[in-house]
């Protein structure tokens, strides 16, 4: 599959900025992609800030889009375009970008680090993004929150009582393990994109469930996790980004603050 | 991160069978890993069929396990051990195995195929495994089905009406696109692990929602998807595997058949 004319065309087309295709006005899953690009100081465009950016998103996910010669159509954003390559799925985009941006070990015969970082990122996204989203949409993504509010209350209560501590405890354990290396990071003693994903997800659940997170942070049981959060937040490029207007406010996306879903 | 003594030890330790660490008595998410190994005729061991296999699973996911020098602890099975490498997360294990077993393009500078296959596999797992699971556990994984039966009915109805056709229609569109190449497969004109994942998930939803799937198949709108399903099922090694006692029956796992959740 490798040595086709198109693969050659592709290689020479990579010396161009990354293009992030994502909904305007929510940080959403696109935010993970942005944090990698920002931390690395990479050149990129972002439909969230482009005139008619939403049209680009809608054209990609149109039910008539069959993709192109090289790329299957994407089901949903975030979508990354880089030269001839167009890919979707948050953890997949991060996997592509991570080694290129110095935020994960290179993919090589003699280094399996990327699979460890990918596992950590997938686990963060499962527990602190997908499951957090489902607390306000437990029945169906296609229904309004108001139409599943009672189910949401039950779901959020279980999430805060059981799932949040389970995931926070897991990452605390990862940080205590030897494979995490020295310093505040999850893997190998260096910042990887798994750390950026964990930062963003903690930031999101802090917004959604401020009371619960305050209690969990205050318990001291997840010291390493919150130290990692602070360490990412203080990185110069991330700090500059978070203060810029490129960083969008949480609203009606994955992380929503409904006081009735938080603990008292 | 690459050139450490441990990375070298790792390389020489790879000439050993794969070890799948997964719950006994359900196909579950471990089944995706098995199908790759079976299709490739790879040597592997499986805790599902080992005496005390469950102890191996429980030791890995124990709340005191901190992993080892190289590997963070896994949160949940499936877990793959290969020499010194130990990784978790279904799509991550498939990503590791796919290129090694000839079921995905090799990861190389001049070939981005692996990211397209990974995106497809992630999308299948999202829509036809994770969401299918949530139809019988919409409120909390930690509660019994009986304690969320009414919510499950509502969730399954929405899933069958909206999500199943959305995902089947998406994969039909992928199959119509040029990037799928010739033949019945999703990407590049060759069998990849994304096809095996789609096969297993269709098989699972057929078990869970037989009436709905019969109607959807009969509609003719997803002809390519069901042809792919049949094409995988007829591959000699898969056929032999499915008839063997290594293939476990569906029961109380991701795919469950509750007649009240299916359509009439």
Automatic annotation (TrEMBL), chains A, B:
<dbReference type="InterPro" id="IPR050213">
    <property type="entry name" value="GST_superfamily"/>
</dbReference>
<dbReference type="InterPro" id="IPR036249">
    <property type="entry name" value="Thioredoxin-like_sf"/>
</dbReference>
<feature type="domain" description="GST N-terminal">
    <location>
        <begin position="17"/>
        <end position="105"/>
    </location>
</feature>
<dbReference type="GO" id="GO:0004364">
    <property type="term" value="F:glutathione transferase activity"/>
</dbReference>
<dbReference type="InterPro" id="IPR010987">
    <property type="entry name" value="Glutathione-S-Trfase_C-like"/>
</dbReference>
<feature type="domain" description="GST C-terminal">
    <location>
        <begin position="118"/>
        <end position="261"/>
    </location>
</feature>
<dbReference type="Pfam" id="PF14497">
    <property type="entry name" value="GST_C_3"/>
</dbReference>
<dbReference type="GO" id="GO:0006749">
    <property type="term" value="P:glutathione metabolic process"/>
</dbReference>
<dbReference type="InterPro" id="IPR036282">
    <property type="entry name" value="Glutathione-S-Trfase_C_sf"/>
</dbReference>
<dbReference type="InterPro" id="IPR004045">
    <property type="entry name" value="Glutathione_S-Trfase_N"/>
</dbReference>
<keyword id="KW-0808">Transferase</keyword>
<protein>
    <submittedName>
        <fullName>Glutathione S-transferase domain-containing protein</fullName>
    </submittedName>
</protein>
<dbReference type="InterPro" id="IPR004046">
    <property type="entry name" value="GST_C"/>
</dbReference>
